[in-house]
Each structure stands twice: as C-alpha cells, then as structure tokens.
Amino acid sequence: MAEPVAWSQTQVDLGGLPVRLNRAGKGPPLLVLHHDTGTPERLALYDALAHRFDVMVPQHPGYGHSERPQWMRSARDLAVLYRWLLTALDQPRATLLGLGFGGWIAAEMASMAPADAAKLVLVGPMGIKPAEGFILDQALVSHIDYARAGFHDQKAFEAIYGADPSTDQLVEWDLCREMCFRIAWKPYMYSQTLPHLLGGVQSPTTIVWGAEDKVVPPSTAQQWLKAMPKAKLETVAGCGHCVDMEKPAALAAFI
Amino acid sequence: MHIMYFTEQPMATYPADKGLEFGATALMFSNSHFDPVSGSRLYNEYIEQYKLAEAVGFDGIMLNEHHNAPFCMQAKANVFASILAAITERVKIVILGNPLPLAENPVRIAEELAMIDMISKGRLVSGFVRGGGQEQLATGVNPAYNRERFEEAHDLIIRTWTQAGPFRFEGAHYQHRVVNPWAVPLQKPHPRVWIPGVISKETVVWAARQGYPYIALNTTVEQTNKIWELYDQTAEEAGFKGGPEYHGYLKQVHVAETEEKALENARQFTWMQGEFTGLAHPVWSTPAGYSSPENRRGFVEFSTGRGSSPRRRPSFDEQIQNNMIIAGTPKTVTAKLRQVMEQTRPGIMSLWANDGAVSHADSMTCIRLFGEEVLPALRETAKELDLKSPFEANTPVSIHYGPNAPKQAVAAE
C-alpha cells in the first residue's frame, strides 16, 4: 500500500473572490471539478490520483461553504473562473477531470481553449440536453434522495455520507442546490450552445459513464460522441452517476 | 376599521383519498383529479358569495391566488378582481396579492391593475406577495432570485403607475425597452398597496420601510404582536408612526345559527391535515434559496423529518381554545373577536369565513349572519378601541407621499 497522502489547503484569490483549493501529489497537473452536490474533503479517488498527479481539487465558488459570487449567472462563468485559476497557478495545460456537473464546466473550459488541456475526462457529464429522458431535477426531490440517486449501490453512498447524513451535510447540499439554481435553473443543467462549440477541442478526451446512471441518462454519451467525434467512451458496469465515489479504481484507470 | 370577506376558493370535490395516497395535494398532485364541472359550479357560487358579502356590509373582498393545488382554485387574482370590479359597486377589491416574482413582465401586471382600478372606479387595493415555494416550481421561476424579483418588479410597477412614459427600465431581472402602457390607475398617486405575509421578517421590515400596511395571515396572537413590534420599530426608524392603521389581521372565523353547526363547519379549516396550503411536500414548499438564510437549517431538518414544520398547526380543539379558529353563533363569535381585537389591535380585519367542503347554503348563511349581527358589533368595538383603517386615518399610500397627496381622480358617473 502506498504511503498516506499529505493534502494542503489554500485559498487562491481571483480578483477578490477567494477559491478554496485542496492540493496533493506530484506529477503532471490534474484539476478535479466536483459534482453539483459539492465534494467531501477527501476521497479514495483523490488519494489514488495523488500518487501519479499533482491533484488540485478546488471547491466551486458558491458551493458548500465557499463564498458565493452574487454576480454569477452560468456554468460558463464558472469555467472562465477556472481558466483564470489555472493561469494563476501557472498550470494552463492541466488535465481536466469533470465529475457530473463538473464535467459540464470542464467541457466549457475546453471549448474556450481547445488545445490547452493535456487530457479531458468527463464523467457522466451534464451540459448537453439528453435526447432520451431528462437530467434528474433536484428541485423536486429531497437532498438525501438526490444524493442517493447518484449511487447504484446504496452501500457506497452510506460508506461516504453515512446511512443518515448529518444536518451539516444537508445544509451544505442546500447551499449547493441554491447555487445550481442561481446558475443553471433554466434550461436545467445544460447549455443549448455547448454541443456546437466542442468540435474544435483537440485535447484527447475520454467520456466515462456509469451504466446505471439515474441522474444523467447514459444514452446521452452518444450526443457527446457526436459533438466530439474523436472522444473515447468507457462504460462502467454496475455503477451509478458518481463513478468517482462508487468505482474509484475503475475511474482512476481511465485517467 | 376595514373589514373584509375572504375565502381561499377551495375545491373540496377532489378525491381526498387520492391526495392521501399520493402524500401531497400540491404541485405534482395530478390535475386528472380536477373536475371542471364542479369547478364551474364552485366559481359561480363564489361569485354569489362575494355579491352577498357586499350586500350585507363588508367593506372589502380579499382575493389571492395559488397554483397547482385544490386548496385554492383561484389561479389568477386579477381575473376575479376584474369580475368584482364590474359586478360590485361599493366594496374595496383587495388583492393580497399578486405574486410578483412569477411575472415575466411586471408592466402587464401594472396595466391589468390599472384597468381594474378604472373599471371599479377606484376601489382597488393592490397587494403584492412573493408567492409560495411551490408556486415558483409550478411556474418555472427561479426560487433563488425570488426576493430580488419581488422588489424589482414592485419598483417597476410603482414607476409605471406614477412616472409619465415612455421610459426605459434596465434591472437585474427585468429589462424593458419601452415602458409606456396606455392605461394608468384612476387612484392617485397610485392605488393603496398592502403586504400580506406569514413568517418572513424581511417582508415585515420591507413593508414598513415602504410605509405599506402589513397583513398578518392567520398568525397566533403572540406572533401577530411580535410582527407589530417589528413593524412599528422599523416604521419609527423610517420616520413615521405605525399602529392599527398599518396593521391587518386575517382570522379564520365561521358563523352559523347554532354552536354545533358552526363547530362542524369550522372543522373544514383543517380539511387538508390542517396544512395552511394543503398537504405539502416540504422540499417543494421551500426550494433552496426561497427562504431566509437564517431558516435554512430549520427547513432542511424539517424536509428530512428531523424537525417539525415551521408552519405546523396544533389540533382543531387547541386552535378553538386559543382563538386561532373562531366559530359559533354571532354572539359567541362577536365576543371572541372582541378579545382578539383587544389583544392585537388591527385596523384592517379579514374574515376567512368558509373553507373546505362547507356548502354554498351554509356559506351564504355565514355571510348573512356576519352582516346582520357581527359586523355592526365589530364596528362598535373598533370605535371604542380606536382602531382606524388606513382610509379612516387617511394615511399616505406610501412613505414617498404625505397625507395630502392627491387621492383619486374622479370617475365618470
């Protein structure tokens, strides 16, 4: 077993907006963009990646307990901030690992700088309107039900959040939910222009999908392949939306 | 004192067992359970009841609107306000209120209200609300910007009513190239604005800063007096004196010929498990961003069953005991209302008189008894307690106008 990973926590100032950043490991740079439900401080996946990469896990501004930019209106705004962050950290070529909602942000970033990312890994990405079915609407379900819907195996959910998530966790999910509403209420969690802007992306791209994803229909992968014809698709059997938390080893192998 | 008649316009003819089975009677409760035949009958019965309310001496008729739920059939307050403008002659038409954030074009609301004001010959009182949480979802409006939209739409409507057009409006949520509706209100400087509410302190403070009367909706005596304390304190900071003419109170009150009959009908006030707005789903009634940040913890606890509902009501008997629900013969009701008036001192009183499955005949009896026996006694009490309405006290329509601002253009006879 590898030695324990030492994580540092810093604040990066982006024009007066403090962005919280967890960072660990050595190797080529890798930026992780978390889900719409925020991220736990530590995950087995993050530790595994830190053995091979310089892993940067920022907390999206406005999500969890990070400061909310009141002016923000779109996922594209977040993408611009993250390009700014990579520039500030002198890592413009970092690999982008986008998880669910984070996959949307990563794709927007790639569309802005089509040759910059060393690699692009999008996991069950939101951002494109599914041809079949819908992106699950969290406005209509409880915070716990929505978080649980991300997992095919409920034991995997409980291993991370507990069978009965704390009230602090619920408050954090509510803050995340409010920020999602602020920037992606209508149309809900996708962009009508993004599919038309991805054709120029030159970074090698892997689309990963949990075969049992109940949040973003797995068939949406075909639309991503249409928008990015050179991308590779990897499907993870017996896994829900949160591949990062449910099958971390399988996901790490694609990165 | 200004005394209004109110009903939620309930539709009790839906299959209640289906609601219980589904676990909610709002938003996602299927409208396949809506019966337009009884809907047509009920709408017309409500019109009869409003006409009687005017005939027996109520000063006003209070209207509201809700969406996707049988507890309130009225989906657009301005529709009923338009009907009342034409078929009544004397009562104030008190809309409490138009849910501003739901509007994509507040100028249209301003225009509709101006028409209602002219058709009614200056009888409109135009309240504004934020709309319930479920209403935001039912109309697809972003709950996270609810309060911002409310305040911005309000500002735009008041400007539309008071500033000569054309002008341009560039707000955060509303942008209009040309604001210049042909119709403007009859009442000057503009129709009175009253603000109803339940639990948001922000709304109480906002109403007081504007100099608008605040109508406490079915709150307890204790909550009501806390609201007045906050209102009057804010009013003082804003430079005017609060008091009864700025305080309104909505009470559930049912009158019948006998105590037994009144109590039986009053049970209908708890017809949907006693929830104020029907059997609600906590996640739908409080979408993220809709409520005050200080209530966030309470609401997420409630939504998972860890905390009790911030809107919870006690049992029927308890509500009768503490005058939350008042029911009885005119004599009983008059005595109890006097008690409540002494305890809370409102200058505006709204009587929510019939709810749930109370029959049309019983509703008409209730309204008639109010007019014949209760209202005259309440007026005496109000005089004795010096409870003046905004009309009697001649208060300015808002903080921006003095008491001598022009009140009304003269309507043609």
From TrEMBL, chain A:
Q: Which InterPro entries match?
A: AB_hydrolase_1 (IPR000073), AB_hydrolase_fold (IPR029058), Carboxylesterase_BioH (IPR050228)
Keywords for this protein:
Hydrolase
Which SUPFAM superfamilies does the UniProt record give? alpha/beta-Hydrolases
Origin: domain of life = Bacteria
Q: Tell me where in this chain the AB hydrolase-1 domain is found.
A: 32-253
Q: Name one GO molecular function term.
A: hydrolase activity
Q: In its UniProt entry, what is this protein called? A: Alpha/beta hydrolase
Source organism per entry reads: Siccirubricoccus deserti
Automatic annotation (TrEMBL), chain B:
Any one of the GO CC terms: cytosol
Gene3D superfamilies, per this entry?
Luciferase-like domain
The source's domain of life comes to Bacteria
Sequence ranges assigned to domain Luciferase-like in this UniProt record: 38-342
Q: Which UniProt keywords apply?
A: Monooxygenase, Oxidoreductase
Membrane-crossing segments per the record:
none
According to UniProt, the name of this protein is LLM class flavin-dependent oxidoreductase
Region named Disordered: 394-413
Under InterPro entries, the record lists: Bact_Lucif_Oxidored (IPR050766), Luciferase-like_dom (IPR011251), Luciferase-like_sf (IPR036661)
A GO molecular function for this record? Answer: monooxygenase activity
